[in-house]
Structure formats: C-alpha cells, structure tokens
From TrEMBL:
Belongs to the glutaminase family. Gene3D superfamilies: DD-peptidase/beta-lactamase superfamily. PANTHER family: GLUTAMINASE (PTHR12544). This is Glutaminase. It is an enzyme of class 3 (hydrolase). The lineage of its organism: Bacteria, Pseudomonadati, Pseudomonadota, Betaproteobacteria, Burkholderiales. The keyword Amino-acid biosynthesis does not apply.
C-alpha cells in the first residue's frame, strides 16, 4: 500500500469541501479565530514508515486528545488503582455533561469525558507535577519539544465554568483529593497543548505497538494496558458519537474540539487527521470523512 499517494488523494478529494460545513469551536477566542479551511492527515506505521499530506505539520490545539495521554500517565503511575474512581462505560452524553455524576455518586463514566479526565488529573496531581510530566511524555514520544499555549490555557480557565462545576461536584462526593484549583490548572493546560498531525501520529505510536515507545521500543504501557486504551477509545473516545464512529470507521479514535482526531489500527499504524470545523458532538466533520475514506480504501477495521 502506498500510503503517501493515498493520503494525498484523500486531501485532494476533500479539498473542495473545506470550510463549507460544520462550525469551528467558538467558546474561546483563540479557537474561534482558527481558519476553518484547513485539513491535514499523517500516519506512522508500527515499523516507522511515515506519510503525511495537507496541513499535516501545522500545530493545532489538541484539546481532548490530551485525555489519551493523561490516561496513559495515570495507568503508568497507578495501574489498576486508577479504576477505583473512574468507570469504563460510554456515557452517551455530551463530553461536558453533569447529569450522570449526580446519580453515579461523582464517579465519571470514563476517562475521556471531561469529568473523567479531571478525575484522572486529580490522581496525577497527587503524585507529581502533572503539567511537567505531560510535556515530558509527549516530548519523549514524538522526539521534539512540545509546549502549552498559554493564551488558550488562560481562556479555558476564564470560561471553564462547566469544568469548574464538574470538579467541585466530584469533590462534594469526596472523589477529588486535591484542591480543585491546581487540578483544573493542570487540566486546562493539558487541553491547551499544540501539536501537528504528524507529531500526534508519532506520539500515539505506542498504541499500535502493544505499548512500545515509537522510537526507543521501551514499554510506555504494558501490552494489556495498551489494548485497554484502544478499547476505551473505541467505546468512549468520541463522546456521544462513539457509536457512529464504530459504525462508519471501525477504529479506536480520540477526538478534540480543536478538530483533531487520533485513530489506531492495532499492529499496523496510528493516524491523525485535523480539520477545525466540527459536527454537533464536537468531532471534526471532515476528519470523520477522511477516516471513513481511509478505512474504506485500506480495508482496515477492528471488526
Ligand atoms: N472535547 C474537548 O475537546 C473539550 C475540551 C475543552 N477544553 C473542555 O474542557 O471543555
């Protein structure tokens, strides 16, 4: 399979649709001003072959894709104990919903909705400098320095009323150990990280390699843990559109409201697409189309 030709073809096919449908996230100015007519795609195979096309080296706000790496840090540090306060079921609700937390005593459904990622971040904050560890992990995984976007982090904090509510609500059930301030500060900074499609395709490489670091080969996660992350991505990685993703694409995916989506083809490759305009659940509209085309043309699926 000539992946480079395939990715270029996907870019050419989708280019006429750029900027025509969907809405760029508008809850903070730094995201609202991102031009919608951008599209990038990149992949890295298990054995280190790379291909990329379109705006694949343009950094964007990874937003909820950071939840993948926060979970990885949590699994590395805590193993099974992490699951004492976080579930593993799809929520079927928007990523920032409060409704289930009340009836489920402050235990979030999964680590990929906001409440779940805030709960994971609380565990990280108890153990180490969660912001520094996140940058350290990402810098190691993609082999180049990764940084926060301080403007985005400040705007997330200034407008993050729901996330502040989620953290306080969980705290009221005794499910958050630390003061909510430092936990939210780390969560907002994690959301603000900027990376390109190519960097994310590299960084998520351990997920198609049974947990092995994409360059050094060290175990980032055990094989079993990596399989579990992929399972969670498939069932919970795209919020209330997880069913639609499984139906149309058939791969574990994690999306963010910056318009990025990371997808894993176990034992083959990791893929990242980015286009800022979103559908109603907060997933990239053209990113979904591109992944559907990729899966259709290559025949890859976990089913
Ligand atoms: N789905 C997302 O990407 C949400 C991230 C966003 N910063 C939030 O916390 O609401």
């Amino acid at each position: 399979m000539d992946y480079q030709l395939l990715l270029e073809d996907i870019v050419d096919t989708l280019r006429p649709e750029l900027g025509k449908a969907g809405q760029v996230a508008s809850y903070i100015p730094a995201l609202a001003r991102v031009p919608a007519a951008q599209f990038g795609i990149a992949l890295r195979t298990c054995d280190g072959q790379e291909a990329h096309a379109g705006d694949s080296t343009t950094p964007f706000s990874i937003q909820s894709i950071s939840k993948l790496f926060a979970l990885t840090l949590g699994m590395q540090a805590m193993g099974e104990k992490l699951w004492e306060r976080i579930g593993r079921e799809p929520s079927g609700n928007p990523f920032n919903s409060l409704v289930q937390l009340e009836s489920e005593q402050g235990i979030p459904r999964n680590p990929f909705i906001n409440a779940g990622a805030i709960a994971v971040t609380d565990r990280l904050v108890s153990l180490f400098d969660a912001k520094a560890h996140m940058l350290g992990l990402l810098t190691s995984l993609c082999g180049e320095p990764i940084a926060f976007d301080d403007e985005v982090a400040a705007s997330e904090a200034a407008t993050g009323f729901r996330n502040i509510a989620l953290a306080n609500f969980m705290k009221s059930f005794g499910r958050i150990d630390n003061d909510v301030g430092p936990v939210l500060d780390a969560y907002f900074h994690h959301c603000s990280i900027r990376m390109s499609c190519l960097q994310l395709a590299r960084a998520a490489g351990y997920l198609c390699r049974d947990g092995q670091h994409p360059y050094s080969g060290e175990q980032v996660l055990t094989e079993k843990q990596a399989r579990r992350v992929n399972a969670l991505m498939l069932t919970c990685g795209t919020y209330d559109a997880a069913g639609e993703f499984a139906f149309r694409i058939g791969l574990p995916c994690k999306s963010g409201v910056g318009g990025g989506i990371v997808a894993v083809v176990p034992d083959k490759l990791t893929l990242c697409v980015w286009s800022p305009a979103l559908e109603h659940s907060g997933n990239s509209l053209l990113g979904m189309k591109a992944l559907e085309m990729f899966a259709g043309r290559t025949g890859v699926s976990v089913f």
